[in-house]
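Troubleshooting: if your tokenizer reports a length mismatch, compare your output against this known-good record of 79 residues.
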Amino acid sequence: MECESNINWYIAIFGTMASLGTRVAGTVLVGAFWLAFIVLYLAFFAGGLDFWQKLAVFIASGAIVTGIVAVIWIKWALK
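Known-good structure output:
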């Protein structure tokens, strides 16, 4: 039952990306939101962290963004 709801969620979010243009726009939007997150996080929330902790947040958030972009493009790549 849970697997079926996960598939429905995937189709609701990424099933509407039928054209190449929507995938490119989605990739650009995800990148812009990630850049905004990094700038705002470092400016307002990371004051008490040292360099390595800030680097870890940067790498972890980059990995999450890479996964989101991969999900966006995987359906197109398998055509």
